Amino acid sequence: MRKTLLSLAIGLIALTTQAIDPGMKKGTPDIISLSVLEFNNDGVLFIGDSKGGIIYAVNLDDTQKSNNEEQLSIPDLEDKLAGLLGTTADNIMVHDMAVNPISQNVYLSVSRGRAKWTSRWETPNDLEDASILIKITPTGEMTEASLENVAYSSVKIPNPVSPDIEHRWIKGAKLRSNAITDIAFDDNKVYVTGLSNEEFRSAMWTTTYPFTQDVKANTLEIFHGAHGKWETASPVRAFLPYQINNQKQLLAAYLCTPLVTIDANKLEDGQHVKGRTVAEFGSGNYPIDMLLYQNNGKDYILMSNSALPLLLFDPQDVAEYEGEITEEVKGYLAGVKYTPRSGNGVQQLADFNTKYILSTQRLPNGKLALTSLPKEWLYP
Q1: What is the pLDDT of residue 13?
Q2: Residue 253 to residues 279, 280, 379: CA-CA distances in angstroms?
Q3: What is the bridge-based pairing of β-strands 182-186 and 189-195?
Q4: Segment holding 328, helix H or strand E
Q5: 5 lies in a domain?
Q6: Is 260 exposed, middle or buried (0-12, 13-18, 19+ CB in 10 A)?
Q7: Which residues contact residue 352 at a Cβ distance below 8 angstroms, ignoring those fewer than 6 apart?
């Protein structure tokens, strides 16, 4: 009887693992740069490796359910990371953040590269390759997460931008750091944005998960109202999928902050796709992160920025906006309305629990803090 129960337990464990991805193998993924992090609802971590041009799906065996509703605060995040990694706080750089929706454990991709920062237009991936994955529990316990001997699978993105191409106006930077700029998971599909080697560099790649199908590649074109022209060279900086008027759309934000809708039904392999510009939120800024969250049963979208405050907008306003920006915008503001929220210095965003959004924020004292933003406080 005991042997039967043991066999049954082993079988259930195997089924649980296979439910995540039967195509995973055990080993150490050859990740060059932890450029972008994203979880799906099953606790699988997707890692976008810009330098490698590969998307990895990793099972971290992190499935202990947490129902925590408390906030998490670390006012001196870089100091704590520096102590853990044996360096100084001024050299610690956080590239991305993601929260496992099952365990509420927070994961950061980190490098020792912040001391190289010389321009406000540089992003962490322009300066250094993130090679360290950090885990922070809901109670604030911090450890380095190992990627050795894990279950993982991977897929290459076709024709990412070449490693040797220089950035046009960021001295010393290579375009390859923008091969993967963001990842979103929705309805068993993985959407990836970045730069390709095509004549029109701005790209979106789409594949299913588990990785059983070929990756579809599309080039993107948008009208940038602040610049007064159609553009194909700038990558999407932050985006998320959303159902608008019964059609799957990708809400995407670019450098100098145009907001664009991209019809997911047009993402057929090899097609050049034009987005519809529905807003201009302000020039001289780049979006850092975009988050969909719910409060009191209603959807909201929150966007963090390099030079603007937090921007909160209602996806219903996007659905009801019938126009399209196709001419230069005077004053840099037009289209879908937004509500500014105090939050200068907020960088990464992640949905933490039912009450809080988690953020990294550069405080007036220069410290980088891990802070919790109450969803009720963000309510317009």
Answers
A1: 41
A2: 9, 9, 22
A3: antiparallel
A4: none
A5: no
A6: buried
A7: 71, 72, 99, 104, 106, 358, 372
> What tokens does 13 get?
């464990």
**Local structure of residue 73 (DSSP, 8 states):** -
Number of CB atoms found within 10 A of residue 249's CB: 24
Residue span of the structural domain in which 175 resides:
33-378
Specify if 9 maps to a domain: no
Mean pLDDT calculated for residue range 333-359: 94
| Pairing, β 298-305 against β 287-295 | antiparallel
User: How many domains would you assign to the chain?
Assistant: 1
The CATH number of residue 345's host domain is 2.120.10
Instruction: Render 230-241 in DSSP notation, one character per residue.
Output: EESSSPP-EEEE
Q: Which of 186, 66, 125, 99 is nearest to 360 (CA)?
A: 99
Share of the chain above pLDDT 90, in %: 86
- What residues are paired with 73 via a beta bridge? none
In-domain check, residue 132:
yes
**Residue 51 corresponds to which tokens in the numbers above?**
């330098």
Angle at 220 between CA 217 and CA 221, to 5 degrees: 165
Confidence category of residue 3, pLDDT binned at 50, 70, 90: very low
